[in-house]
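Subject: sequence -> structure tokens, single chain

Hey, anyone have a minute? Need the predicted structure for the following. Not urgent.
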Amino acid sequence: MAVVPREIIRLQKTESTNSVALELGERGAIAGTVVVAQAQTGGRGRLKRYWLSPRGMGLYFSIILRPELAPEHLPKVTLAAGLALCKAVEAEYSLPPEIKWPNDLLLDGRKFGGILTETGFLHSMATERKPFVVIGAGINLFTPEGGFQNNLQGRATSIADHTDRTISAEPLLMAGISAIEQEVLRLEKGDFQEILEEWMERDGVKDKVLTWVTPQGKKVTGVSLGPDADGLLRIRDGAGNIHTVISGDVNLVGKGPE
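Reply:
Had a minute. Here:
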């Protein structure tokens, strides 16, 4: 994936920057194209959850990339993006963000950001459909007046709650874009093990008790062992059995869906 001069598409309001980016990618938009919006009316996260995206309160953007990765390695992009955004926040605000597998960004155990990685295919007459990825990020820069909605009380936070520094979306946007590109380049070079080691240094739930609801609806409770060499979460239940989480709902014990 050669990094190319990017185009930044700036929108006042859209349903979802990821939806716009997926459509652009299908039509052949170049790698590095970014969609950023002041507000989203239908921002979404993992498992089709709604992401609150009020105007002026956060940074909401998506970037199109066409990494030279085998399809089975594309899920690793989410972990690389999480590490990248942690590094961007660290650099801009000297804060110590952590990550909850696979895509939540935390400060003091509360969520301030999330990542949604989606795959699309270029519309082409060619028989081979080459995939591209859209990495979407929602980051709470400020806390809404009156606080977060009741269902988010105690579980959500913002960067402004943790620093006295001046907060501006634009510097964090540029730092985040650059960091994502660099981490995905490392993925292409085969450096996932190093990425994973850095990710695990920021693992906010390692050794904590989690509940995992499998796609079949089965509930598993156990201690998080962190991601394995493929980036899949491991949970050890009370009987000592180790479960590998590919998908499904994962939450800290005592907390509802995030």
